[in-house]
Amino acid sequence: MVQAILYHEDMPTTATGTTVAGDTTIGDIEQALTRLFRRGNQPRVHEQLIARAGVALDRAAYAVVSRLGDCGPVRLSELAYRMGVDVSTACRQVQALEQEGLVTRAVDPGDRRATLLRLSEEGSLVLGRVREVRRTQLAKALGSWSAEDREQFATLLSRMLNDFDALMETGS
Q1: Alpha-carbon gap, residue 124 to 68, rounded angstroms
Q2: What residues does each domain of the chain span?
Q3: What CATH code is assigned to 48-124?
Q4: pLDDT digits (tens, 9 = 90+) for 91-109
């Protein structure tokens, strides 16, 4: 959760109208991120990505497959938490992916009463195809950037995401 910034008369505003104490670039960054998130959440963008990858995967299914690909074997409750959805929602999504052969369940060796979810071999292949298309598109978009610019951007973006994760953990 990102804290809301309170308005005070003496605080400067950015060109985008955002008021930020002493730093006019925060509003510009926020607007750029908003554009990026908005673009990434457009159904047609997802449809084009999936079509290029040659797979059948709706946005909700991609979220599950992607998260399982990132975190590896995990209990349903942990998957739901990581996705920010109710367990019942994650359960329905996982069941559909199991039927499609993209997700499997196995007994948790640490607690034989529980099961762990993981991508099947087919699920890993599907995720790999989608990610390869995304990387190809990213390479095209950043094709005119120097290697140094790409490295700096990757470093700063990772740093920002780590800082957001730290904020989330502290509840600030």
Answers
A1: 9
A2: 1-41, 48-124
A3: 1.10.10.10
A4: 999 999 999 999 999 998 8
